[in-house]
Every structure is written in structure tokens, then in C-alpha cells.
Design a protein that fits this description.
This protein is of the alpha+beta class and 159 residues long. Strands 1, 2, 3, 4 and 5 form a 5-stranded antiparallel β-sheet that branches. Helix 3 packs antiparallel against helix 4. It is globular. It starts with a strand and ends in an 11-residue tail after the last helix. The C terminus is likely disordered. InterPro entries: N-reg_PII/ATP_PRibTrfase_C.
Length: 159
């Protein structure tokens, strides 16, 4: 099998969830992805963009993790959760996917606008990286790979 590196950009979205959903996901209950309206809405919106999570034979590929967001709301804010002047902790679903590094700015702006439009926070935490590399086996025939890039060693991580 030919494994090569493919230049991509990373999209990471931090999405608030309920304590119930956090508990379900932490126990490995995949129904929480459908049962939580916010996560379901996020995944549905992101599926509208075929460029996101395209790994050749695998589409809409994503990774997720659980955590907490912490923030103190300042004067003038209109918080969805918490009160001005108080520190708030929110259970959080962290969604990560990738898109081709050559994707144009207009396309990136379209899915970023969509995410901001549906996100429940006044100021959502959405990260977009510059180009990085991930492993892929669906890029080129093995003979072509040796001419352009060295194959990634077995067990090596993406950089």
C-alpha cells in the first residue's frame, strides 16, 4: 500500500453541548450524535460542503473530542451562557476535519460563514490552520509516488 502525505488545512469547531450529551459521548454512545440537536445541525451543515473531510474513497471524515470551554464575559457582551463578570465553564464537543490546502478563499469563506451563522455562541471558537500534511493512500499509483515524494513510514503520524 502506498501511503503519501497530502497538503491540507485543518478546520476545528468548538461546539457547546449539554452535560447529558457530554456524558453520553464520554460513554461511547454514538446515538448522541443524532440525539443532540446542536451536533446534528453542525454535522448536517458541514455535510453540505463536499470539500470538507474528503479523503478520496472516504467522504465527510471528521474527528471529535470532548472538553470544556472556559470564559469570563465582559461588559457589552450578550452571552448565550453565563453572566457578565462571571467565569463560565461549558461542556464542549470539538469537531475537527480537513480540506485540500489548494481550496480557494471564496470556498473557505462560504463554509466559515455557514458555521458562524448556525453557531449558538455570540463569538464562536472556529480554527482554520495554514497548510499541514495528513496521510493518504488514494493519491497516486505507487510508481508515481517514488518520483515525487517519499512514502510515509508505517506508524508515522501526520505533521
Amino acid at each position: 500500500m502506498d501511503v503519501r502525505l497530502h497538503p491540507v488545512r485543518k478546520l476545528r469547531v468548538h461546539w457547546p453541548i449539554s452535560g447529558t450529551t457530554f456524558g453520553q459521548l464520554s460513554k461511547g454512545e454514538p446515538d448522541a450524535f443524532r440525539d443532540d440537536p446542536g451536533i446534528a445541525h453542525l454535522l448536517q451543515a458541514l455535510a453540505e460542503f463536499r470539500e470538507l473531510g474528503d479523503f478520496g474513497h472516504y467522504k465527510h471524515v471528521f474527528e471529535s473530542s470532548l472538553g470544556f470551554e472556559g470564559f469570563t464575559t465582559a461588559e457589552g457582551a450578550n452571552p448565550t451562557l453565563g453572566r457578565v463578570g462571571e467565569q463560565t465553564l461549558s461542556p464542549t464537543f470539538v469537531f475537527t476535519t480537513y480540506f485540500d490546502a489548494s481550496l480557494g478563499d471564496a470556498a473557505v469563506e462560504r463554509f466559515m460563514r455557514r458555521l458562524v451563522e448556525i453557531h449558538p455562541w455570540e463569538v464562536p471558537v472556529i480554527e482554520v490552520t495554514g497548510p499541514i500534511s495528513v496521510s493518504s493512500t488514494a493519491l497516486a499509483p505507487p510508481a508515481e509516488a517514488s518520483k515525487t515524494e517519499a512514502p510515509m513510514a508505517e506508524g508515522a503520524a501526520a505533521s
